[in-house]
Amino acid sequence: PLAANNGYTFIAGGLLLQWGQVTSVAHSLQTLTFATANKAFPNACFAVFTSAYGSNVPSTTNEQATIKVVKATVSATSFQWIYETTSATYTGFYWWAIGN
Asked: Is the CB of residue 99 less than 8 Å from the CB of residue 75?
């Protein structure tokens, strides 16, 4: 296990849970490689989850950020995403993934 901002741990049943932080607001298709951030899944990545973050994020609902994970690109080694936002206060996103 690696208990850090970009880290991972093994869970009972042979599962691998990974997490990390991406500082980017690229509005084009980007790739996160698990082995670069943490480690590749030995067999498969089942799902990737994201949450946008930023400094001074407004409390109004008219400013948003969306991270679109391209499902077809999720694999044991990487996933691709597109960041969409209506505000400059969002500066990146947290992610976590589960697989085996």
From this structure: no
Q: Which residues have CB under 8 Å from 17's CB, separation 6+?
A: 8, 9, 10, 11, 96, 97, 98
CA dihedral for 91, 27, 22, 94, sign (positive or negative):
positive
pTM of the model: 0.84
pLDDT band at 95 (very low <50, low <70, confident <90, very high): very high
- What is the H or E stretch that residue 36 is in? helix 34-37
| H or E, element range at 27 | none
Query: Exposed, middle or buried by CB within 10 Å (0-12, 13-18, 19+), for 22?
Result: buried
Q: Is 73 helix (H, G, I), strand (E, B) or coil?
A: helix
Q: What's the pLDDT tens digit per position in 64-83?
A: 778 889 888 999 999 998 88
